[in-house]
Amino acid sequence: MTARQARTGADTHPPTEAETSASDREEIATLADIRRLAGGCRRCDLYEHATQVVTGEGSEHARLALVGEQPGDQEDLQGRPFVGPAGRLLDRCLQEAELDRDECYVTNAVKHFKFERRGKRRIHERPNAGEVQACKWWLDRELKILKPRLVVALGATAVQALLGRAVGVMKQRGQVLPGPDGLQVLVTVHPSYLLRIPDSGAAERARSAFIEDLRKIHTVLGK
Ligand code: URA
Predict the structure, then answer these.
(1) Which of 41, 69, 88, 159 is the most exposed place for a label (fewest CB within 10 A)?
(2) Mean pLDDT across the chain, nearest whole number?
């Protein structure tokens, strides 16, 4: 896919020789290969302004994968997924659902931070369909290596990347939907959504519902 196509979401064509990066030519067999090669990714334009690529993190033997949207400001600076405010909230909710982040593989649908600069601040911008599609190349490889029993889709972008179709997150949340290649996908909201709810009572209820969704993981994994 050309950078322009990724930007606009236009139809794709097989990459030309010039567009083919090292990652296309080298064999990718481990998550370490992904970490090593994704730094040179030019599948879309997002690498141009991001500090670094942020690939997934966690055990190669994890049975559970969590997929978010894209790295945020802190993740971009630290090079690790879910380490900013949304990540801290995710960690607390996982704990409350009696899940251990160390036993999960945590990643994003898109591996570079997309933002708009406003003065000194970098404001998150949602990746477009072409960028999600371009980065699915990496997500597919992460999941092929990991072969998780269950993947949790955190929000609409992750759902779209994992299932290849739009799904009403609020309607389908808490449900396990079948994805390609036998993937089992638990749909839920993104933790950033919880942070944006202004009313404290509503935020607390939304947080409890999120933890309820996460608790369903035990049933699927048989713990
Ligand atoms: N939001 C995401 O979707 N992923 C991160 O890694 C951080 C914030």
Answers:
(1) 88
(2) 92
